[in-house]
Amino acid sequence: MIPLTTDKRMLGYEVLASYPDISCFVTTRHGGCSQGNYASFNCTPYTGDNTACVRKNQEILCEGLPQRPEELIIPYQVYGIKSLVIDKSYRQATEKERYVMLQGIDALITRETGCCICISTADCIPILLYDPTHRVAAAIHAGWRGTVKRILHRNVETMRTLFHTDEKELIACIGPGISLSAFEVGDEVYEAFRENGFPMDYISVWKPETHKHHIDLWAANRLQLLDLGVSSTQVETAGICTFSQQEDFFSARRLGTKSGRILSGIMINK
């Protein structure tokens, strides 16, 4: 990944740096005004943070991007697989209607310019996709439940169906999240992956000292991309563990659910 700002507020992806028609980012914990477990650069509502602080942080974020978004579109996620296409019907909706449309959404897809689609995470895996041929972008929330249900696969299929995306042309960015070494799980989570056809010898390890399985969500999602036909050279994995680097990134396992979130966003520039 590459830093976007000298104050460490945001990071970018090298694999997308050569596409001037888009803006993308991953926020850190630095450079905002929130306090306590939200300190300091929490840009996500819905978390219990002070509303004025969230708005100020969002303004700081928008000012720091190469092109200012018309809107930061941030869904209320529920660890599901439902996605929303941001199109003209969304843009023409009222503020109240937009709020309702964003409830229970874990992935956003758009080809609308100026709309910055975002995903909030704090150990789960944020994934950004870009189809440079048809100028379509997606932001996907892949926690373990979404990964098991192949939310990534479902959204690539939607991009193919609606916008004629060719998987071989996709650019994919797997963002900061909990790593294999930190993500210990119970037997029910391990079995959920196994029963859904994931190669457990590749995406998991058993640690006898803790008597726990560990799952590699980065690898599980990367495998889905490669199985879809995305070139390995067009997949970038941040390799940043939010649990072990909690001073720089929010981690729900460290701070609890009443805490800040990393915001990952992508926008097709005007």
UniProtKB/TrEMBL annotation:
Presence of the UniProt keyword Transferase in the record: yes
UniProtKB keywords: Hydrolase, Metal-binding, Transferase, Zinc
Catalytic activity: S-methyl-5'-thioadenosine + phosphate = 5-(methylsulfanyl)-alpha-D-ribose 1-phosphate + adenine; adenosine + phosphate = alpha-D-ribose 1-phosphate + adenine; inosine + phosphate = alpha-D-ribose 1-phosphate + hypoxanthine; adenosine + H2O + H(+) = inosine + NH4(+)
A Pfam family annotated for this UniProt entry: Cu-oxidase_4
Zinc in keyword set: yes
Family: Belongs to the purine nucleoside phosphorylase YfiH/LACC1 family.
Protein's UniProt name: Purine nucleoside phosphorylase
Name of the coding gene: pgeF
